[in-house]
Amino acid sequence: MRLSKSESDHTLVITPGEPAGIGMDVCLASDALLPDALKRIYLADPEALATRAGLLGIKCSPRVLSNPKDYAPGSLNVIPCDLGYTVQAGKIDTRSGPFVVQCLEKAISLWEADPNIALVTGPIQKSVVNQSGIAFSGHTEWLAERTQTDKVVMMLADGELRVALVTTHLPLSKVACAITPEAVRATIAQTLISLKEDFGIAKPRISVCGLNPHAGEAGYLGREEIDIITPVIADFRSRGHFVQGPLPADTAFTKQALQDVDAVIAMYHDQGLPVLKHSGFGHAVNVTLGLPIVRTSVDHGTALDLAGTGRADPGSLLAAMHLADRMASS
């Protein structure tokens, strides 16, 4: 069970992600905008962070800590992770793969020592991690495996619009086989729990998308809605939960359809997330529901072409840090 802020002060631990991308840029830009009361520590290479700050024209002198207890308000607090080479902004290098995983591993180790740690992750270049010889499909899957969590749910949130996914980083050819009663049921259940516990919504209301065009058109365009999704929804409704659907995905996100719900559950990644990113890209937050640790992340990628230019928008990281702070306090 997560501890409330009244029981213990929590700390945000931030992993900037791929060092050649904008992760360090948005960390440096965000830190200058955050209040001292928001306790935060970066897991990064101090030298690389200072070099990027110089490139951006930001005055920065990282305060290197050996552990979170040494935290000093008003400083850029960094627990070091050794990058092992001199990174160039915008130029990827497979040597960053082990470094990215090292930062995540360090974050989980800190949380294991102190359950009041909340994690905020920057963007990574998954292809580079895999090319370095480390099998890696994404933060969500890695964190689930590392914390031995059977079921997690990927959600993106932008204000009142929240989209949770039944499947995450799967090729489209494998999605239909992954839409099972168990997967749909677990996603709905975890979303209901998190809306209550993490977002403070006493009686959550959820819409569920169908898998097929027109939600299957009464079986003429696919039977997943009839055979899998509808029976699961009926079960939740019979137990008093507000869960509606399956709805055609092309109308589930209209203004009218969204006004009476707290979250929409999409069947796969590119069914729901393009809509949310269209409405709030750069200020939305990726949240992993179901983990024993609070984890939020940015809604964007590494943006290699913007790294070191000073043009990276820190809005999503700021939103992710503020949401992690609120969740850790709940």
List how many beta strands DSSP finds: 12
Report the top-level CATH class of the largest domain: Alpha Beta
CATH homologous superfamily title of the largest domain: Isopropylmalate Dehydrogenase
Tally of helical runs: 12
Low-confidence stretches: 1-8
Placed side by side, the strands forming the largest sheet appear as 3-4-2-1-5-12-11-6-7-10-8-9
Q: What is the 3D form?
A: elongated
Strand % is 15-25%
Q: What kind of sheet is the major sheet? A: 12 strands, mixed
Judging by the overall fold, what is the CATH architecture of the largest domain? 3-Layer(aba) Sandwich
| The CATH topology of the largest domain | Isopropylmalate Dehydrogenase
How many distinct domains?
2
* Oligomeric form: single chain
Secondary-structure element series = EHEHEEHEHHEEHHEHEHHEHEEH
Rg, nearest Å? 20 Å
